[in-house]
Amino acid sequence: MGCASSSPEADAVVKPPPHAAAQPKAPSKEGVEPGAQNGAGATASPLYAAQQSAKSTSQPAPPATPAATPPSPSLGPGGAVNQSLKSLSANEANAVQATLLKVSTLIQKFAEGRSERTTPVQAVRRALNLVTADCRAKYSSVSVLSETQEHALLVTAVGVPDTVHEGNRLLKVPGSNSSVERILQKGTDFYYWQPATPGPTPSDWSALASAAGLTYVAAVPIKVSDKVIGMLTVGFGDTAADEADYIMFPTYLQLIAASLSSMVKDNSIPKYMTLVKDLHETQDLDSLMHKVVQHLRTVLGHSNNHHVWYRIGLTAPNNTASTIFDDLTQVPPTLMQRTLSNPTGSSSFKLLKEVQAAGGVMRTVVAMKNTVMKIAVHNRQQVMIPDVQKVINQSGNVSADIFNTRLIKPPTSVLVFPLKVKQHIFGVIFCMSSVQSDFSDVSPKLREVCEVMSPHLLFMLTQPLANDYKVGAPGVALRAWKGLGGGRGEEQAYR
């Protein structure tokens, strides 16, 4: 097992996987010349030569040509590419033109996908599906780097089950021996691995290659200007690895990565990195819930919107009860109960102040019966109530998870979204509004945030914070429910 890269020290030829050797190779003078290495360790190709010639148009003119030769007009980028193609063999020129056509077609499809009403991660996933189908790959993924390039977050992947990336979605780059670290260290624009090459396998590709049956994995950095902000990875199995044998393949991936950069630098995706990294640095359950709420407000654009607030419910294992976490630091005076407008001697006001002074998180245990949360968990999808009072008037039922505390006014509208990893639902997110809303602008974004956040949140609950989670949240809820004979139980606590 080994790895190779397009670093200056590496062989200039981009070696194909051994099982593609059956494909006939044209002599170098007749076929496509292998990509050369430039001084920065990037893979150069006939296309890059064309780009360089385009840049050279602004430099001093070469020596004058004989009088018999008419002066050449100034070449634009397109003219530079055409001029460069003339210097290539027929096979080389065909390879460059075919690659440009493939990439331009993909970019057009990317644009069509983004014109639809999609969230940032959905747009990236759609692009990966198109790339995977286009080059007959078995796997592809996009990761995003933190501002300091010390962490890499897997944004989305296609071609393998989610279980392949469990525990490896957030990577601490320094010392990881990962593909990301090697690309950053070598400053290379193309990096690949295959079983026949010497050296250790990148740590993030070892389990992936085994689980997905990959025999060739390649990665290119996603850049904005000269800064690496992410990485595109593509993997092949035995049946289609001849695509990776194509001499223009490094250039193909680099152009795809360049077209993905505008998606990856979308304002939401860097915020996902901040959210996930912050969750992994949390030491206790209440702080974890506080961070989730605060990041939800930031990612969904509600930092200064006092009409919207969030709460989190973690369900008991048998879904009979739940512990609801209210972060009272996000509650302005306008959302407090009317009885708190004159707080003198008010026990509720004193409780509110005590909770806020202790961190702001209050736990309320409720039975799942007659709750909106139960509907969301049972149906495994979001529940939206644009007019809470109207539903109460029609059904005669008061949802215990909506009216769980006397410290906050009941909402006018509610959106409840389940937290799930694979088929396991472990809680819900409440988005609540004091003004009537159908949450059309919130729902798709909230879905995406939950998809990105849920695996990390469940990891923190079941690993570092397992004791507090099992004893202090669902465990308390289950005991309270049993102690009350299955009726509604309330247990409020703060730290």
Task: Write up this protein.
It contains 15 helices and 13 strands. The chain is an alpha+beta fold and 495 residues long. The chain has 2 domains: 2-53 and 76-264, Beta-Lactamase (2-Layer Sandwich); 268-337 and 347-483, GAF domain (Beta-Lactamase), CATH 3.30.450. It is elongated. Residues 1-81 and 475-495 have low confidence and may be disordered.
TL;DR?
The chain has 495 residues and is of the alpha+beta class.
Topology overview:
Blueprint: E1 2-5, H1 46-55, H2 77-86, H3 90-115, H4 120-134, E2 139-145, E3 151-158, E4 170-172, H5 179-186, E5 191-194, H6 203-212, E6 216-224, E7 227-236, H7 249-264, H8 268-280, H9 285-299, E8 308-315, E9 321-327, H10 347-357, E10 361-367, H11 372-379, E11 383-385, H12 388-395, E12 413-421, E13 424-433, H13 443-462, H14 466-472, H15 474-483
Antiparallel strand pairs: 1-5, 2-3, 2-7, 3-4, 5-6, 6-7, 8-9, 8-13, 9-10, 11-12, 12-13
Helix pairs in contact: 1-2, 3-4, 3-7, 4-7, 8-9, 8-13, 14-15
Biased composition (Pro residues): 60-74
Biased composition (Low complexity): 49-59
Region (Disordered): 1-83
Strand order of the largest sheet: 1-5-6-7-2-3-4
* Strand coverage percent: 15-25%
Helical content class: 25-40%
Secondary-structure element order, N to C: EHHHHEEEHEHEEHHHEEHEHEHEEHHH
The N- and C-terminal alpha carbons lie at a distance of 51 Å
> What's the CATH superfamily of the largest domain, by name?
GAF domain
- In the residues, how many domains can be counted? 2
Helix count?
15
InterPro entries: GAF-like_dom_sf
Biased composition (Pro residues): 60-74
Protein name: GAF domain-containing protein
Region (Disordered): 1-83
